[in-house]
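Following up on my earlier thread - several people asked me to post the actual chain instead of describing it. Fair enough. Here it is, all 456 residues.
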Amino acid sequence: MQNMRILLSAFFVLFSVLAFAQPQQPKKVIADKIAATVGDRIILQSDIRNSIEDAKRRGEELPASAECLLMEQAVISKVLMLQAEKDSLPVTDEEVEADLDNRVRQYINQFGSQDALEEIAGKTIYQIKDDARESIKENKLAAAMQRKIVENVRITPNEVKAFYERIPKDSLPFYESELEIGQIILYPKASRDIELYVFSEMNNYKRQLETKMTDFCQLAKQLSEDPGSKDRCGQYQVNRNEKTWDPVFLSTCFRLKEGEISAPVKSKFGYHLIKMIQRNGDEAVVQHILRIPPVTDDEIKQAKSRLDTVRSKLIAGTIGFNEAASKYSDDESAKYAGPFLTNRDGSTYVTIDQLDKEMVTLIGTMKVGEYSQPVPFMSEQGKKGVRIVFLKSRTEPHRMNMKDDYSKISNFALEEKKSQTMDTWIKNKLSTYYINVDAGTAADCPQLSKYATDKK
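Reply from S.P.:
Thanks for posting it. Predicted structure:
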């Protein structure tokens, strides 16, 4: 059961997408069979093979033993799920439905529309959800049990030291330079005259659409400033309860009737024209055209002047960086997650390749502890802004060591201890559950024989 936690996580990912991504197949090359039984739950051979094929279609590299590894983790997952039911761990129907809705929306966004997803899956959205519901609930129960088993696992400094000393010196990882970088951002607003001009243009587009002088798709591709949708004729699938959408945009969508085009509405991104294509309860397909009122040099200068004042306060020490970011920054994430850039794992240490080109150039001239002058920049969404950058720390390229990388080593040691705790729990629990592995499956995957409690 080495690397059990990693493989179990992979199992959750592979099997949770199965009911969504599996296209309809009129002929099955291999007849289905029950590969294993755990308690009163079964594991189908097709589930394993289909999830492997899905992974291959996504371009993932799998080991030669992938089928056996997934079978092993499927058995473990069923045990975790059954124990979670026995312990009455709370997984509500509402949580399952929310998870289903989120996954469906992700696949719709991936394939471009609900119709495209249904065509690929060979099922309606309702059938997709029905097929996936039980699997999603089982996975959530197994994950809840896994969390319960390791939730009280802690690590001591002596254990961290012992973990580090067990690593062969020639196997210590090499770390590139890492940086802690914070930023305070202002997004200047366009002048009133320019806003009125854009609003007037949007009304003109609406008249053209309503008099059939042009169609929405053509106009979206030609004029929309939303890079995420313009190539799809401005189309999005939206859900009334999804919090990631701008509230003005979302509320406008659900006030429209099918085929109706909204008046120009202003969100935090700019001005929109929205057309309702199709609505089904809290789900809707819409098209939109986004125009962003341009910011002039005058607005940029005013923002720089405001940030100059903030920078003076930071240098004088009359306000801390986190407080200043919370008080002055227009970056929404700074108000909740903090003003520092984060790595993929959520840490505030980033490498140079994760920074935009303008940031790389800027920090190349800075010393640790310095605040940059206010500088203009362009956001990923194409929005003009001005920012102050704070270089809090910079590490030199180095081999992993206790002085520079204690927090990383501590996390590695904690994960190992959690994995060992899981291994011990599983070894103690497996014998308390009825497990039967199909003879053919056991012959192909000899490591599964150790799980069988039915030896007949």
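The chain has a mean pLDDT of 86. That should answer part of your original question.
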